[in-house]
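We modelled the chain as a single entity of 357 amino acids. Its sequence is:
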Amino acid sequence: MAGSENIIEPRFEAVIKEFSNGNVPRALELAGKLVSQDPTNHAAWHALGLVNLNASNSHEAFSALSRASAIAPFNSTYYGDKGKACLILGQLERARECLHSSHALEPDDHEIQTLLSKIGVTDFPTINLNDVLWHEISSLIDAAELSDVTDRQEEIMAEASDDPRLRYALALSAQGRNDLDEVISQLHAVVRSLPAFAQANKALADFLWMRDRLRTARAEALRLFPARFLKTRNFQDLEFLEICYDRAVAHDPDNAEGHTYFANYLRSQGRERDAAWHYELALTLIPNDQFVIFNRVSQAEDLERAINLVTLYPNFAEARRLAARLLARAGNTVSAGRQYLAGLKLPPTATTDAYFD
């Protein structure tokens, strides 16, 4: 079963006892401490989400339950409870995504079926989950043994048509083979089955954007400025790509990388204001990340912050070149020349997080 794990264990007993006795503030305090002690514990986030949900703190419940489902993306109960929070908040589309994902992983949950029916969903697709094979494959994924996943591709494919978890495993193994179209095909199938699966949505958006940039690069191979290939044009799946990024950050709001990639994409489309908002969200999560700072500074063309970035990261070549450009624009050509020459002596930065125009 892909459903919930029993959270009634010693470390949660105090939370449940306080909540059952009507002492909601104390229950929230204890649940918060559990999360602080181990931010990677999905059951702790789920407990915090449930207490908030039952205390009518729907926004806080959604945030905590989002963390739980991001850490344990194949737990049907987490998606179901998050869907309930969305219904209370009036977010019907988000609720539909969460409840759909919950039902996909636990088709026999009649409460989820009832909630889906109430919001107008009457089609309940049947899927079959192979728990034995999934546990074997997931252990290989956790150990980063993607080659072993690839070796079992035929076995997985025989079962994967109805199991979104195994589809996800196939996508990961195809990534290891650099088979971009296969990765995209498998991830499409995953997000159709589990629309609230944040990591799969982000991965699909990343790969769709990557494929478009490669196609653009091939079409414009003779142009002088290949960095301009980042500008996406004539992309037929553009709307769906954005939906995937939007889902990714909505269902995993504390993922700084998701906000950064979404901002980079929005910026490539000329939507600077939306991009700035996601950059700033990323900076609240990882305030000292050099690439997120670089992205925001280069977008805002803020000379003071550019100089501060160079001071913090003196070996960041692109930051020095950015500082040189802004210094030159401000009329300080001597300092601009120094920064530019210093940048030339440094190797270029190899990263997908930074936006280089």
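As a brief sanity check on the tokenised model: Residues 1-8, 220-235 have pLDDT under 50 and may be disordered. The CA atoms of residues 100 and 194 lie 7 Å apart.
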